[in-house]
Write a structure and sequence with these properties.
heterodimer, A: alpha+beta, Helix Hairpins, Heat Shock Protein 90, 3 domains, 5-stranded mixed beta sheet, B: alpha/beta, 14 strands, about 40% helix
Chain lengths: ~450, ~230
């Protein structure tokens, strides 16, 4: 998941949590606020009534009977009730409670402040009520408003936060798409500095550029070095090879010396091939080859078998090409792929029994991709040798019967396979044969 | 045939020179960029054998320069030990006629030169006759004995052709093998494939006429004689 998406997700979730928390916490708070607000109003009214009584005298309100007053909508009422003399005449602090009262044949819930007081030797009860319906209406309004403010605020900040994160992370996005994606080689890297004023991105970009240019210069040095090494090693070999060829043409050369020269030629040939192999491997590993062709396996294998036809006939081997369907490797180097398959098939010829067979089988792999198998009917390879089969310069069958050339064909094959992002593996059963497997992506 | 060897490595230069002189070429020498540039400008050659890493400059520039000079009609063969992969492509793009990576076989060099000459003079058919009545057509890749076709495999044909091109020379198994498998890297130097090929060629030719012209030189290789 991208950083920006993660940030946005987290942002949205935290805001949602905030809104939920608000929905949970706001109603009780609001109702408490509303109630305390009502209570305060009741107290204020009580004080006003008491003041009125003091000023005008109790008789203004109560003449023998109880006094009651309410407004038209019955949201509030005030009653003054004389208490019987037997009752407890002691003054009480005002009490506030909720109780239903009948007002004009209608029963309604009220918030009531009730107080007992003495005036002129008599006790009275003063009740001031405020309709609970009114209180609830207030609570509802407050609650709704608070929630709306919360939701709108949350939505607004989610949006602005996301927009800001998007703006802030733009250099990072650019860094990834422009500089990192699709860059497999330093030469394809873009060194134009990133446009940003965020210090962290600036630093990231700078170190990326710095590292890439280091890698590039290392690549170039390596390339130059390989070119020099190649020149330094191959030139003397070339001189000797030409000299031996000239010597062999000398009519005065005796037979014994000619034989020595032929032997020297062989030795030189071995040296030459070792050097060339190492250079080839080094050049492949240093990405000096392009992979810019779509190559069909059948066409390469046809070329390979054409080249090797005579060897197959000489050893009375039967080769079976069985690719169903053909596979086209989209980004490949045909020459290298030829070398890889040539080495595998040529190996299967060299290490086969007389009159045996070779099967080259290609099928879509069950786990996806494509699988090419080259199976011979040779003596097989002992299990303990298998892990080292692709090591450079290792030979297993010692002695005169061992065929030449076990040393470098397979490491080359492995290197080329890796270069093409293929997996080369081997299975073998002593006495039955060996199978090399190429797994294509 | 007038050949200019452009090669700064003295020993190699000497060997190539000796070989070409023995093969009846007229040979001129240049050891540096400046020297080569001068000679290419003044003289006209049939061939320039061009090393790329020269004191004083890059052989490719020499090639570019020469191709801009209309009087110079020489065929260029690049000989290099530089490992750069794109040298070959660059060289051929600039108009080189062939490219031989070092180390190369002198015989291979000579047969490439012959092939270029054939192309240049528009020789459509190259017919080589040998034995009594064998005729090898290198262009059509056929071998005939009088009026009959002799069927050879691709490798057998190449081998016979190469031996004919270097008539009266002893060719070692390595030289033959390198010609047949030149583009493939193999450390199979002791293989007896060449012997089997020769045996098969002899068997096929012997059905028509004696094959004493294809000699075995014990321990060394094979030779085609008149």
């Amino acid at each position: 998941m991208r950083l920006e998406a993660k940030l946005a997700l987290f942002n949205a979730l935290s805001k949602l949590l905030l809104v939920l928390l608000g929905a949970l916490v706001i109603p009780p708070i609001v109702s408490r606020v509303a109630i305390s607000h009502t209570d305060q109003r009741l107290h204020e009214k009580q004080a006003e009534v008491v003041q009125l009584i003091h000023r005008s005298g109790i008789s203004t309100f109560v003449q023998g009977e109880a006094y009651a007053d309410y407004n038209i909508l019955k949201q509030e009422y005030i009653t003054l009730t004389p208490l019987p003399a037997t009752a407890d005449t002691a003054a009480h602090t005002p009490r506030i409670f909720d109780e239903p009262r009948q007002v004009d044949n209608q029963i309604e819930d009220f918030r009531i402040l009730s107080e007992q007081f003495s005036e002129g030797g008599r006790s009275y009860r003063l009740e001031i009520g405020s309709s609970l319906a009114t209180v609830e209406l207030l609570t509802d309004t407050l609650r709704r408003m608070a929630l709306w403010v919360l939701v709108i605020g949350a939505a607004l900040t989610i949006f602005t936060d996301a927009a800001f994160a998007h703006y802030l992370l733009r250099p990072l996005r650019e860094l990834i798409t422009r500089k990192l994606q699709g860059v497999h080689h330093p030469s394809a890297f873009s060194y134009t500095p990133l446009h940003t004023d965020t210090a962290d991105f600036r630093r990231l970009d700078n170190s990326l550029n710095e590292m890439m240019s280091k890698i590039q210069s290392a690549f170039e040095k390596e390339r130059e070095f390989m070119s020099n090494v190649s020149h330094e090693l191959l030139t003397p070999v070339s001189i000797l090879q030409s000299r031996f060829e000239n010597l062999l043409q000398d009519p005065e050369l005796g037979h014994a010396h000619s034989l020595k020269i032929v032997e020297s030629q062989k030795t030189l040939y071995r040296l030459r091939n070792t050097v060339k192999t190492l250079l080839l491997i080094a050049n492949i590993e240093n990405e000096q080859y392009l992979r810019d062709e779509a190559v069909s396996l059948t066409s390469v294998l046809t070329d390979v078998t054409d080249e090797l036809e005579d060897r197959l006939t000489q050893r009375e081997l039967e080769l079976q090409l069985d690719l169903q369907p053909d596979y086209v490797l989209p980004q490949a180097n045909r020459t290298l792929l030829f070398t890889l398959l040539f080495n595998l098939v040529s190996n299967a010829i060299k290490y086969n029994r007389w009159g045996g067979s070779i099967v080259v089988q290609g099928r879509p792999a069950p786990q996806g991709g494509y699988l090419l198998r080259v199976t011979d009917t040779g003596p097989g390879i002992a299990a303990e040798h298998l892990p080292h089969l692709f090591d450079r310069f290792r030979r297993f069958q010692a002695g005169a019967s061992a065929p030449e050339g076990y040393g470098l064909g397979l490491p080359i094959a492995k290197t080329i396979a890796t270069f093409h992002k293929l997996t080369l593996t081997v299975e073998s059963e002593v006495g039955k044969g060996t199978t090399f497997q190429l797994q294509f992506p | 045939m007038h050949v200019l060897i452009v090669e700064d490595e003295k020993s190699l230069h000497q060997e190539v020179r000796q070989f070409l002189l023995q093969s009846q070429y007229l040979v001129d020498s240049a050891f540096t960029y400046a020297e080569a540039s001068e000679k290419i400008f003044v003289n006209s050659y049939d061939f320039v054998l061009l090393d790329l890493g020269l004191p004083g400059g890059d052989g490719l520039d020499l090639l570019r320069e020469a191709r801009q000079n209309e009087r110079q009609e020489a065929s260029f063969i690049i000989l290099t030990a530089r490992g750069a992969i794109d040298d070959r492509v660059k060289g051929l793009d600039l108009g080189a006629d062939d490219y031989l990576p070092k180390p190369f076989s002198l015989l291979e060099l000579q047969s490439r030169m012959q092939a270029i000459m054939r192309r240049k003079f528009g020789l459509k058919r190259q017919e080589l006759t040998f034995g009594q009545g064998f005729q090898l057509d290198a262009t059509g890749r056929t071998l005939r004995y009088q009026d009959q076709d002799v069927t050879l495999t691709k490798k057998e044909f190449d081998l016979l052709h190469y031996l004919l091109l270097h008539k009266n020379r002893v060719l070692t198994r390595l030289q033959l093998g390198e010609h047949l498998w030149g583009n493939v890297l193999e450390d199979d130097s002791d293989s007896n494939y060449i012997d089997v090929h020769i045996k098969n060629i002899r068997k096929k030719l012997a059905q028509f006429a004696p094959t004493h012209f294809l000699e075995t030189v014990r321990g060394i290789g094979y030779r085609m004689t008149e």
